[in-house]
Amino acid sequence: MLEENFSARGHRSRLRTRFERDSAVMADYEVLELLLGYGLTRKNTKPLAKELLRRFGSIRGVLNARSDELLDVPGFGAGLMSLWLVVREVLSRHADSAARRREELVTPDAVVCMARARLAGCAYEECWLALVDGRSRLIAWKRLCRGGVSAVAVQPGDVLERALAHKAAGIILVHNHPGGCPTPSRSDIDLTEELRQLSPRLGVRFLDHIIVTDEDCYSLAQNRVIRRQSGSV
């Protein structure tokens, strides 16, 4: 066992040297192998790295995989899951930070990027709000509520209350569909239409309702499922 650990450390040291010299030339499994090594410090992580890529297709697929899917892979235990959650949170906050810079205008693509980074691999539905000022600059990016595997209960009053609390001029509602299909449900459309009608009474523009999956998205405003109020994202 001691000899095996020594061999794994030597291999990882050589791999790290190659990475520091020129990371771009390294294979995906080698980069993933290095990351896994921070959670499994005494094991050869190459077999696990290759198995994860085989199952999920790419590094993005591995990072976006659901927790239960990852824990189903032999060798991927609770310790690695903790590391993965930290990595995901760092990536989510990195995506958030670009749109959080007040000098940048919020666009549908920027909102989708924030939402997908935050919700990738999430096994249940969550509803988030992107709240903007009169020049469509982001004021707040906040989770409104968390639901189950196929629905999230959202009350229009809760959305508008959050917007008023932040003195927002506009609202972009975002939620995910874990099943992978971004098509809005009847309840999604009804909620959106209710918010479109109620928000002008409070002096707030309802700009869009965006549904995201790991690979796709759907804008109810851009697809003319709802009539967008004056102003744009």
TrEMBL record:
| Matches recorded under InterPro entries | MPN, RadC_JAB, RuvA_2-like, UPF0758
Molecular function GO labels: metal ion binding; metallopeptidase activity
Q: What is the originating organism of this protein?
A: Candidatus Desulfovibrio kirbyi
Pinpoint the MPN domain residues.
104-226
List, alphabetically, the CDD domains matched.
Answer: MPN_DUF2466
NCBIfam families according to UniProt:
radc
Family membership, please give it: Belongs to the UPF0758 family.
Entry protein name:
DNA repair and recombination protein radC
Q: Which GO terms describe its biological process?
A: proteolysis
Record keywords, A-Z: Hydrolase, Metal-binding, Metalloprotease, Protease, Zinc
